[in-house]
Write a structure and sequence with these properties.
The protein is an alpha+beta fold. It is 40% helix and 37% strand.
Length: 130
Amino acid sequence: MKLLKNLSLSLFFLVPISESRADVFDQVVAALQSGDVVKLETYFAPKIELQLPDGRVFFKNKEEVKKGLSEFIQANPAEKVQIKHRGPEGKQGFVIANYLNKAGVSYRLTIYMEGEGANMRIRELKFEKS
């Protein structure tokens, strides 16, 4: 009985962590969907990389990453951003999403994040033409 009680308590405390992590990914995707780069910036890790489909890469400097991302989103406003796959649980995770712009052009978007629960931060954003 004591084992069951301890197991129940453990599960009780683990569920909010995984929900918080999923919430962070969902919030990042929602910010991309709405084109809210200021909101996205709050999820940037101290070292971040942005890869765009035209071959440009922005690394480490958050202001450059923010500027590059703003330019991409301005030129390719999202019609729909849909998560296709979520990576394994842990301190590092990723999602693969489809980023469809309003002109009907589709991009494969990979978001790599690190941290735990609600403290997950974007380590890399990678857009590839599908």
